[in-house]
Amino acid sequence: xxxxxxxxxxxxxxxxxxxxxxxxxxxxxxxxxxxxxxxxxxxxxxxxxxxxxxxxxxxxxxxxxxxxxxxxxxxxxxxxxxxxxxxxxxxxxxxxxxxxxxxxxxxxxxxxxxxxxxxxxxxxxxxxxxxxxxxxxxxxxxxxxxxxxxxxxxxxxxxxxxxxxxxxxxxxxxxxxxxxxxxxxxxxxxxxxxxxxxxxxxxxxxxxxxxxxxxxxxxxxxxxxxxxxxxxxxxxxxxxxxxxxxxxxxxxxxxxxxxxxxxxxxxxxxxxxxxxxxxxxxxxxxxxxxxxxxxxxxxxxxxxxxxxxxxxxxxxxxxxxxxxxxxxxxxxx
Length: 333
Description:
Elements: H1 3-30, E1 41-45, H2 51-54, H3 70-78, H4 98-101, E2 106-112, E3 119-124, E4 128-129, E5 133-136, E6 154-160, E7 163-169, E8 174-177, E9 181-183, E10 188-196, E11 199-207, E12 216-224, E13 235-236, H5 265-270, H6 274-277, H7 286-291, E14 320-322, E15 330-332
């Protein structure tokens, strides 16, 4: 083969390689890195779901729909809200799942590798109190069981289609409901973030080998609001004595077994049988409700929280007419 023919062959080979490389680059640039969705922004709470729990708070003894065991029930019945007067107990509500049981909005943003440009973490801020939650996306493992348990816990995430799935471990004990139903520091917390336009729905599964017999499932929805201007760093929970002259003698407000004065409150107000109020996994399912069909008599009128989710401030919820007399029903306008 002469020099000219060899040169022509080398040029042809180089052209083919350059063409193949260009094709690969075009495919990479045209295909998404993965099925990721932008979750960044200011998300404000829309209290259309469980507004009583997120706003004014649940009744003192209402464990309906919670898959708690006997130990959790005993701890909840011993709980008194006066415990919040003690500085050492004022910040115990702010485990990671408080994002779902609390009333606040949230701010989300991503952090990228400064060299590679890949998202290495998502951050979840809050309006107040809760620690910033870091969702690690770089494949790092969870710490060993005996590692530090901060309030924020340790969270990793992965994309499944257009849904961000997160797993949180290593967080302090807290509360499953804002009336003393406990969660232990052995809990795991899994969230599914799904964005639909300007709505963000988070569905969560809480598993606790200490206090729950099944997974507790809860979902909440937020709405994007660019005018909200939520701060990325929330105001911290700062414990302080709320009662003048509190001596801090070590006494913890509580109720002794069989002495909780609110046990029959749900029965008086709503005619709910005590077996329903005390909760348990069976109260989560439609079969339990059907068991009560022949024996349950609804109250003749509404006397508390009658006006939908807007009623937390004494207002009727949008597009609803509040009827507190007679049947106590709420009708659409």
